[in-house]
Design a protein that fits this description.
The complex is a heterodimer of chains A (294) and B (248). Chain A has 14 helices and no strands. Chain A is mostly helical and 294 residues long. Chain A has one domain: Orthogonal Bundle (ABC transporter involved in vitamin B12 uptake, BtuC), CATH 1.10.3470. Chain A is globular and about 55 Å long. The termini of chain A are far apart. With 248 residues, chain B is of the alpha/beta class. Helix content of chain B is 33%, strand content 24%. In chain B, helix 4 crosses helix 5 (146-159). Classes of the chains: A mainly alpha (294), B alpha/beta (248).
């Protein structure tokens, strides 16, 4: 009860709770499409590629305004994705290797830039390293408001284009024959994914952000065979895990928020794999697996 | 001035060349598919059968050549063309049911932002009925057999309400019930004045199922009504020395 009261009336706790729930909902929704399009690793590459952007935005402007850092993160993530696509187009490199190469290069650059910034003895820089593992405790109202606006924008686009996004996730070639601009829709989904990542950067951090996208969706799939329900369940799992994880990280002092949320999510995935009503082990046990004829 | 599509061939292809990484898959292809034909496209593996369909649909770029659908470029007559892709081209673990997949065939008519209404649902159920799948409307698609999945894809194409249907290996790996249901549906389409083109692999059923045939092996070997076209000589020219193996 005491925790609940503080949650509502305490400034810091309210920011933390709201911020982590917004993040959970947005990444839970967009994660569904990423998982169904088998693009979980793209989320990982995008989030790692965002780090140098955060550093450069700070170095160039000297500001830590959330929107400035988020813009830097988004631009840098986008160039990372662009490079991956160019690599796939013009070399014989496979998708996994291209993703791994860009992900690690950008992350390496980001860590070097972070070190450079810290060496500058600049009092204002404190806190940038929180982008590695996230620190919900440092969320301020400014950031939460920015997260809420960006998140609401993402959700509105998904709601408007739900059937188009569903079709290009299931059967992109058929979508093209219907005259849908499948490439642009697909690029739009990736852009929304990038926004979700940017929204989560200072709460969860670049390293673990992709779990925020993949885990709620993977868990939700165990409970339903319908896409709208999967999206709703995934959003709830994301919000719940965000809230509990952030709460744990704040009350247990020095645990960074990202790892705390991800551990809660891992538990949710584990329980879903065991007891999920659609594909869970509990309901499958004793049932012979139906092998669908080719 | 809009012209009556009936005075044009359903599909008109001239000098079509398609290449993957500089290797020609289709070479200088000329093909006319008359309106209201029920045509099989046959040829060995790698002959470019699926590529031909995908090129017509704009899914694969042509290196050169002309394609006309009822006398117009495909982009303008897109709504006259229904498509049944190979069943293996999608992940059937996708969280949706048979009815929802069939409704996807209506998205072209629905347009942006609008959601399917009761009339669209009713139309989708009609299409499932036509292929004998109405009882499976709410079945999760991974719970369907391969033949049932194929019929769901066919029902989705029916929902498109097209004049020309392009099907990529609709009979591949399906059970006898499905094969019957599909050929009955295709014949109904033809009776209703539609043109149907199937990439087909079973040479034995060509004379029974189809009235036109195109024999393809990178180049077009022959095309036309089955009786004068589907000859041993033409088959040998299409398949080379492997005839015995192919017809076995």
């Amino acid at each position: 009860m005491n925790f609940l009261r503080e949650l509502i009336f305490d400034y810091t706790l309210r920011n933390i709770a709201l911020g982590s729930m917004i993040l959970g909902v947005v990444s839970g929704v967009l994660g569904c499409f990423a998982v169904l399009r088998k693009e979980g690793l793209v989320g990982d590459a995008l989030s790692h590629a965002a780090l140098p952007g955060v550093c450069l935005a700070y170095m160039l402007t000297g500001e830590k305004t959330p929107i400035v850092l988020m813009l830097g993160a988004a631009l840098s993530g986008w160039t990372g994705l662009w490079l991956i696509l160019r690599l796939l187009e013009s070399t014989r490199m496979d998708r996994g290797s291209a993703l791994a190469l860009i992900l690690t290069s950008y992350f390496g650059l980001g860590v070097v830039l972070l070190t450079v910034i810290q060496k500058r003895n600049d009092a204002n820089q404190a806190g940038l390293d929180k982008f590695l593992f996230g620190q919900a405790a440092s969320l301020v109202t400014d950031q939460v408001v920015t997260m809420a606006i960006l998140g609401a924008g993402c959700l509105a686009v998904v709601a408007l284009l739900f059937k188009e996004f569903k079709l290009i996730s299931f059967d992109p070639e058929f979508a093209i024959t219907l005259g849908l601009p499948a490439n642009r829709l697909s690029g739009g989904l990736t852009a929304l994914l990038l926004v979700a990542i940017v929204v989560g950067l200072n709460t969860v951090g670049v390293i673990l952000m992709s779990a925020m996208l993949v885990a709620p969706a993977a868990a939700a799939r165990q409970w339903t065979d319908s896409l709208p329900k999967m999206v709703a369940i995934s959003a709830s799992f994301g919000a719940g895990a965000g809230l509990i994880g952030a709460g744990l990280s704040v009350t247990q002092a020095s645990v960074p928020t990202g790892p705390a949320i991800i551990l809660v999510l891992a538990l949710v995935v584990f329980v879903s794999l065991l007891f999920g009503t659609r594909n869970g082990w509990w309901w499958q046990r004793g049932r012979t697996k139906v092998v669908v004829a080719p | 001035m809009s012209s009556d599509p009936a005075q044009f061939p359903a599909l008109f292809v001239r000098d079509l060349t398609v290449a993957y990484e500089h290797k020609p898959v289709l070479w200088d292809l000329d093909l006319d598919i008359p309106d209201r034909a029920l045509m099989a496209i046959v040829g060995p593996n790698g002959a470019g059968k699926s590529t031909l369909i995908k090129t017509v649909l704009g899914l694969v770029p042509a290196a050169s050549g002309t394609v006309r659908v009822f006398g117009e470029v495909y982009a303008l007559n897109r709504k006259m063309v229904g498509y049944v892709p190979q069943r293996s081209s999608v992940d059937w673990d996708f969280p949706t049911d048979a009815l929802d997949v069939v409704m996807m065939g209506l998205y072209g008519q629905l347009g942006w932002f609008s959601r399917p209404k009761a009339t669209h649902r009713a139309r989708a159920i009609e299409c499932l009925e036509e292929v004998g799948m109405a009882d499976f409307a709410k079945r999760q698609i991974s719970q369907l057999s391969g033949g049932q999945q194929q019929r769901v894809f066919l029902a989705r194409a029916l929902a498109q309400d097209a004049r020309l249907y392009l099907l990529d290996e609709p009979f591949a790996g399906v059970d006898a019930v499905t094969e019957r249901a599909i050929i009955d549906t295709l014949r109904n389409l033809q009776s209703a004045g539609k043109t149907v083109v199937c990439v087909h692999h079973d040479l034995g059923t060509v004379p029974e199922y189809f009235d036109h045939v195109a024999l393809l092996n990178v180049r077009l070997v022959a095309s036309g009504p089955v009786a004068p076209t589907f000859t041993t000589e033409n088959l040998r020219r299409t398949y080379g020395g492997n005839m015995a193996f192919v017809t076995a």
